Amino acid sequence: MRSEGQGEQNKAMTKQPAESANAAQIEYWNHRIAHVWADRHEQIDRLFAEITEFALGLAAPEPGECVLDIGCGAGTTTLLLAARVVPSGRVVGADLSRHSAARARERITTGGVGNAEVIVADVGSHRFASDSFDLAFSRFGVMFFPDPIASLRNVRAAMRQGGRLTFAVFRPRQENPFAALPYAAVAHLLPPLTPPGPEEPGQFSWADPARVQRILQGAGFRDVSLTPHDPRLRMAEPGAAVQAAELALHLGPVSRAIATMDAPPTEALRSTLEAFFQQHDGPQGIVLPAALWIVQARV
Predict the structure, then answer these.
(1) Rounded to an integer, what distance in angstroms lies between the CA atom of residue 128 and that of residue 111?
(2) d(CA 139, CA 294)
(3) How many CB atoms are located within 10 Å of the residue 155 CB?
(4) Are 97 and 41 in contact (CB under 8 A)?
């Protein structure tokens, strides 16, 4: 769930040399605050497991296909895609984060997966060979392109004629209580976050269907469709408000606000979040609604 508010966090980071027009995103995803995507990938994967399976089902990767996994993180989607395209297909996972890519490569090696690789790359500018991919897939990775039309033109140039894409992205903030409500519960303890503008990268930057259509058509794709998906995300098992609070402290808008503070009130935040999640605990665990688009198109 790569998310909005990164501009504020970037102010707290040590500047690095620009590697591309995507320098701010490269900086963010290589900062320690983004290591959660690799270090807590099992917990994050459980949170998004139903979304991942739904999106993969619509993507329908087939044996023998070559797939580009955009924003592959710690490699979960890369591994799942690789299992679906055997025996002769292959998957290339790409991520800006060196830390996440290292974890993904470790998992590929440990699992003995011979038809997957992971590269540290900005897919918006990386020089892929033409006619390389039958499918481009992403679970939340495309929402952070500073220039999504240019980035997806680059992706399209690497795809085969008739190739297709499938992306999971979030609908508006107000339709996503799993992200909005924990932050609202502790907002009085945090500095305000300035949401990005409608054309800036962020968690909800693909919420507007008209903008999604404009991006993909501008990048040269056709047959664009948006399928709504409304999962209920289990933040933790029953009675595990402590674990839900810990995840919220490290992932999403609360963690981004904490990153801007010199001395965050961590214990107050933790106890307030625990109390919030206890209110949502039930027989199925701590469950909050989410709202997504599964975006699809063809070359």
Answers:
(1) 26
(2) 9
(3) 26
(4) no
Task: Provide the edge-to-edge strand list for the sheet that holds 66-70.
Answer: 116-120, 90-95, 66-70, 133-139, 159-170, 292-298, 222-229
pLDDT in tens, 58-110: 999 999 999 999 999 999 999 999 999 999 999 999 999 999 999 999 999 99
| DSSP, residue by residue, 257-287 | HHTT-SS--HHHHHHHHHHHHHHTEETTEEE
Whole-model pTM: value is: 0.89
CA within 13 Å, CB half, 179: 23
Instruction: For residue 178, give the amino acid letter.
Output: F
CA dist 127 and 172 (Å) reads 33
What beta strand segments (E) does 17-132 contain? 66-70, 90-95, 116-120
The predicted pLDDT at position 29 comes to 85
* Domains of the chain, first to last: 6-172+195-232+291-298 (3.40.50.150)
Which two three-digit tokens encode residue 97?
Answer: 């984060």
Place of tokens 């540290």: 120
The pLDDT confidence band at residue 21, using thresholds 50, 70 and 90, is low
Instruction: Please give the structure tokens belonging to residue 105.
Output: 């490569």
- How confident is the model over 173-200, as pLDDT tens digits? 999 999 999 999 999 999 987 878 888 9
Contact 200, 211 (CB under 8 A): no
